[in-house]
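Subject: Protein record for review, amino acid sequence with backbone structure tokens
Why sent: The fold of this protein is of interest and is recorded here as tokens.
Enclosed: The protein record, placed directly beneath this head.
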Amino acid sequence: MPSSNDWGVSMARNRMAGEKNGSFNGATVGYEAQLWQMADALRGSMDAAEYKHVCLGLLFLKYISDAFEEQHAKLVAERAQGADPEDPDEYRALNIFWVPAEARWAHLKAQAKQPTVGRLVDDAMAGIERDNPALKGVLPKDYARPALDKERLGQLIDLVSNIRVGDEVSRAKDVLGRVYEYFLSQFASAEGKKGGEFYTPRCVVKLLVEMIEPYRGRVYDPCCGSSGMFVQSVEFIRAHAGGNGNPSAALRTGSGKAKADISIYGQESNYTTWRLAKMNLAIRGIDGQIAHGDTFHNDRHPDLKADFILANPPFNISDWGGERLREDRRWQYGIPPAGNANFAWVQHIAYHLAPAGVAGFVLANGSMSSGQSGEGEIRKNLVEANLVDCMVALPGQLFYSTQIPACLWFLARDRKNGKFRDRRGEVLFIDARKLGRMVDRTHRELTDEEIARIASTYHAWRGEQGAGDYTDVPGFCKSAPLEEVRKHGHVLTPGRYVGAEAQEEDGEPFGEKMKRLATTLREQQAEAAKLDAAISVNLKELGYGG
């Protein structure tokens, strides 16, 4: 196994090469992939689900330590002017986490080769939680456990020591945010089905966000995983703030980063995933009210009416305890079956929409057509209530956790609110099943161009200013009147509505084409007869002739 020093030299060489040609921005896939390969080599036989917290916890610790040390150095230099580098308020005033002495990275790095390094990391995590209430109960604190190889832990600390993630330059480039997300995606892939519990592929999140455009207001995710929806929402606002990726002055914070004019609310039932969510927001300086608990049985935001809802609920959950919620006030369009939570999620989302709210969420394809256990009736009631705005059929193999085909639902509480055109009595259907490119043997992703095509189609259809005129495209999109949806029994599968893709004319006259095809058919029939005769001869020679 190569030493961490070898890796450090490799990382430094990679960084210098990038800086020399101006290409290094901390977000190149090569850099992220190289870092992942190194970290994964240290995993050994440890389960990916376990190693995830070891690795991401250390990255988080390095991030807040980098930011702290940079400010600490400035305060040391300003001592003559009365600055106190050991005053926690000097850091909190700048939204920098205070790092107590026992948690500072230099201290951990110096002890990385010691057998007690696990306990030192645990003490560092505990000290940071103690002095920063926002992180209470969030950080992993089980590095001292006997099952964790301390030599590998020390090597991982050495590896992480070689990257800058929390200084001002790295924060501006969101180095850790990109590395963190890349690691989340790789862990999701390694964990397979379980990985989908905490990670929604970036292209799916980006499509949802680009479609509903959460510029300002309350953004809610009732099953937020590792907070990818919120991160992408903030990135969207920052990218669009100045029209060209340059945030306007009104959106800037003191650090020069764009500040999103949104309030974030989320809930996650899995405790370890909830911790990932809190860390994922913290490393980007995003404030959010992320609650831990079962969304159906312990709704932690019961009175919230959100302007935007983004979600990727678990598909087809059968053990959600629906039999104990038969009279729940959220079921305004029908009681969801106890054996499948899909339409419990749909109605929970609809219930939490503000009067002019918009929602975009992922569901299994079955939700578009299922008629069992009252699901068809619930879907019909949602359509007839003019809630369903748009349906998108997705290509397969987008998700790490399931091969079940998926779709996107878009609900709008008020489809005549004046912001866009009056869409009542219509539903937009988009069939994107043929889009996407394979990124490896088993996974597909939507390209930025394809995301833009789908989103701009929706924006044009709903009458967004500057989005251009909408037209139906056979095989891709169709604006269907409610009467047509009724004829299809309120089944919402886009393939039923968009029709077949238009075939390009080849310019060959019909008569000539039929003559050519008939000639080809006769030639193939003659060849087939020869092959049949040859086979008969061979069978006779073998003694099997008739």
Notes: The mean pLDDT is 83. The chain is about 40% helix and 10% strand.
